[in-house]
Design goal:
InterPro entries: Cro/C1-type_HTH, Lambda_DNA-bd_dom_sf. The chain has about 160 residues and is mostly helical. Helix content is about 50%, strand content about 0%. α1 packs parallel to α5 and α2 packs across α3.
């Protein structure tokens, strides 16, 4: 994390805690853009920068957001990370604690999956069923996935919008 940026007024470094695999800042920012988004597409860098400023956050440019996402810059200020966390609805510690980041990412992927109307409809219809019935439905889904040649776990980013 040796890069400096004119917008920086302090340096923040990532730390790894727990047994979760370390992810770079760029990977974490990229995942936020991919999973926390409007109904269609992703938020633009301009939208995020404007929203952060409108919320009273620090000045951050669209270009700087692009650099953070693509690993061209990796030492934003704490204020920038707090503003990004606030915009995307994650705790600021998401950027520092890899074990927490793993938990947050699992929740974000679930939300992304639930964007799929068909998945959401099945989930809502299953609400209130007994645990035995839910287990039977889960087993049926696994069998159908195998029949269709799908992997055991859905691939990341394959939920329909």
């Amino acid at each position: 994390m040796a890069d400096a940026h004119p917008e920086d007024d302090g340096v923040v470094s990532e730390t790894q805690t727990g047994d979760a695999p370390a992810r770079s800042l760029a990977e974490k920012v990229d995942l936020l853009f991919q999973t926390v988004r409007p109904a269609k597409g992703e938020y633009s860098y301009e939208h995020v920068a404007s929203a952060i400023k409108a919320a009273g956050g620090p000045t951050i440019s669209a270009a700087y957001l692009w650099m953070l996402r693509n690993g061209k810059r990796d030492n934003p200020t704490l204020r920038h990370l707090e503003a990004l966390a606030s915009f995307f609805g994650v705790p600021p510690s998401y950027f520092f604690d890899d074990a927490l980041a793993t938990q947050v990412e699992e929740q974000l992927r679930l939300v992304a999956t639930l964007r799929d109307v068909g998945v959401r409809r099945v989930a809502l219809r299953a609400s209130g069923l007994s645990s035995e019935s839910l287990a039977t439905i889960a087993e049926m889904i696994e069998r159908v996935r195998k029949l269709e040649g799908l992997p055991d776990e859905p691939e990341e980013g394959h939920a329909a919008d």
